[in-house]
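S2.1 Query sequence (Ig-like domain-containing protein)
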Amino acid sequence: MYGFAYGLEGLIIVTSLLFTVAWIHIDRQMILTIHRHVISRIPRYSITYDNANTWLLHVNQAHQDDRGYYMCQVNTNPMISQVGYLQVVVPPNILDIESTPSSVAVRENQNINMTCRADGFPTPKIIWRREDGEEIAVEKKKKVLVYDGEVLPLTKVSRNEMGAYLCIATNGVPPSVSKRIILDVEFSPMIWVPNQLVGAPAGTDVTIDCHTEAHPKAIIYWVYNSVMVLPSKKYKTDYAENSYRAHMKLTIRNLQYGDFGNYRCISKNSLGETEGSIRVYEIPLPSTPSKQVTHSTVETRESNMILGTRNDSVKGLQTDMYGTKNEIFTGSGVAGIPSSSSMSSSSSSSSSSHASTASVASIAGNGLSAFGSVGNAIDRKGSLAIGKSMFYTEHPPNELGSSEVFYESN
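Output structure tokens follow.
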């Protein structure tokens, strides 16, 4: 392994110490040691032996250049040798200069390729995964948990693909290495208002809220009557942020008449600005219930109203009726009713008031018997016809022909 010390062992059986042992790097065609002496000027090489039978070549802090074939040679006649291969493995190392930077930005719905390259021996394998464990949408939005390859292609990137991606390089030699690349997807602000109408009674507290999504991070604030709302005894603001999402709340304490109206939640970043509107309206408190009128009282009032109406109607009809009678007896040209002149002469020829009263009663009887023939005259005057079938009171008379129903003696 690269950077570690290795030893190459040569087991040599000799019959005489007159023979010499040498170590040679075949690939470099370079003599490293002869017997107990190090010939190479590379200080990382050293030699040890045990009773002249076992010879060890030590390579300290091995480099990739040290990889290759080594020969242990004894100058016998004929010469004998033993060949071994030193494999120097190198753990993976990510090449930042050839890879995507640790943070990269792209506009939403655009394409981007993220690259990760590494060296090592054996050649490292590159895999991609999301740090949050979500799937990666590649190749026409095909979703995978792990993507193999140096280049990760992302097409029509959405805000949901924003986050940290891990490029991991492995080659079987520990340790594996990774690089964290943050993908920022930029888009203008968007606001979502859960409730656009919020009602509350005066004197209470009310909370309104709005949700926003934006990247780069947006400035979010509330406006009422064209004035920015700042935290105070009247207003309390709460703000919670998660990635590119934010949730903002505004609590209005002790609602008064001047607090009702439209509140605007505004979100602004370098790519745009948007706002949402919430109307706070007053909910009237329930009033104290009034005393209810009992059923018997209502019936009494209704009876009085009906009775008063009937009495007024009867009085009006009687008045109209008396006027009609007078017209009947004083009018002229009506069949069966004497004219005013004949009534005057008749009354003057009478010597006593009793006779005059009797004449009037007689005339009334005649007039009543002829009442049917004067109906048209009554209708022309706008009076009600007083017939048995058309006029009634609460207690209709048994006989309408009697003069006592209409007149009283003077």
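Residues 193-282 form a domain with the Immunoglobulin-like fold (CATH 2.60.40.10). The longest helix spans residues 295-330.
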